[in-house]
Amino acid sequence: MGSINIIVELLASTLALAAPLIFAGLGGVFSEKSGVVNIGLEGMMIIGAFFGVYGSHITGSALVGLAFAVIAGGLIALVHAFLSISLRAEQVISGTAINLFSQALAAFLIFKLFGKGGQTDGVNGLDYTVPEIIRNIPVAGRFVSGLNWFVFLAIIAVVVTHFIMYKTPWGLRIRSVGEHPQAADTLGINVYKTRYICVVISGMLAGLGGAALSLGMTPLYRDGMVAGRGFIALAALIFGNWKPVGTMWACLLFSFANALQLKSQAFGFNLPTEVYAIFPYIITMVALAGFVGKTQAPAADGIPYEKGKR
């Protein structure tokens, strides 16, 4: 029974750790399906994680903090959209600048708004309380108790994103803009507007992913909290072939490696902790090295669109 409990806790931990990655990965799906590369997912997660905590700090409500995170992520994504779409800047450079700016901004605001360096005060997180009657169910109770609300939100987000992309006219427009914007334009689709909306949605989802880290796990923000998860989400997007469901499975794979290093001692493994800590990043590199040639990005992904130019 002890081994079963460890495995159940490992699976629950995998889902909880995957939620922030799934939100950011789905954000990347929206952005890149419309033709805009979003390297800035890391920075958008940082902004979401910080402003989620700040919103909860000033209001005492985690739900308000959640709204702060989503709005802040959308606003920083709007900057990326303006640079990439309107000014036709190099999208990778723009995303990198977003990452550097976001990290510096969060560090500065911690000092200005909380009067300390490196870490904010603790705040009210999104409370997740499992009724005792469910907790007492063998195996299932332990599994459900190891989750949080963001896991359920992430699963819903995957279903909604898949439905939008492949079952709605707007999803068809998004994909047409990302594959052949000139043809989409001749059919009356506003390429600029579609890309703007998708990039902003991308930032909002990444901001929600940041809030899943801060408000959903440890209700505070500290420097380095995101720890490259935005880049892992980007790798999951590629590994998942730019599809919502594929991205989710890739996020679960990377999160399983992360959960395994957290539960390694329970399995009796005696390797140095540093070995387990690099598991998620090794799997990310192996996945990209082994599968990146087998995936197909949208044809116009990363190519700025100029109306009237052929």
From TrEMBL:
<dbReference type="GO" id="GO:0005886">
    <property type="term" value="C:plasma membrane"/>
</dbReference>
<feature type="transmembrane region" description="Helical">
    <location>
        <begin position="6"/>
        <end position="29"/>
    </location>
</feature>
<keyword id="KW-1133">Transmembrane helix</keyword>
<feature type="transmembrane region" description="Helical">
    <location>
        <begin position="230"/>
        <end position="254"/>
    </location>
</feature>
<feature type="transmembrane region" description="Helical">
    <location>
        <begin position="62"/>
        <end position="85"/>
    </location>
</feature>
<feature type="transmembrane region" description="Helical">
    <location>
        <begin position="97"/>
        <end position="115"/>
    </location>
</feature>
<dbReference type="Pfam" id="PF02653">
    <property type="entry name" value="BPD_transp_2"/>
</dbReference>
<keyword id="KW-0472">Membrane</keyword>
<feature type="transmembrane region" description="Helical">
    <location>
        <begin position="275"/>
        <end position="293"/>
    </location>
</feature>
<dbReference type="GO" id="GO:0022857">
    <property type="term" value="F:transmembrane transporter activity"/>
</dbReference>
<keyword id="KW-1003">Cell membrane</keyword>
<feature type="transmembrane region" description="Helical">
    <location>
        <begin position="147"/>
        <end position="166"/>
    </location>
</feature>
<feature type="transmembrane region" description="Helical">
    <location>
        <begin position="36"/>
        <end position="56"/>
    </location>
</feature>
<keyword id="KW-0812">Transmembrane</keyword>
<feature type="transmembrane region" description="Helical">
    <location>
        <begin position="196"/>
        <end position="218"/>
    </location>
</feature>
<protein>
    <submittedName>
        <fullName>ABC transporter permease</fullName>
    </submittedName>
</protein>
<dbReference type="InterPro" id="IPR001851">
    <property type="entry name" value="ABC_transp_permease"/>
</dbReference>
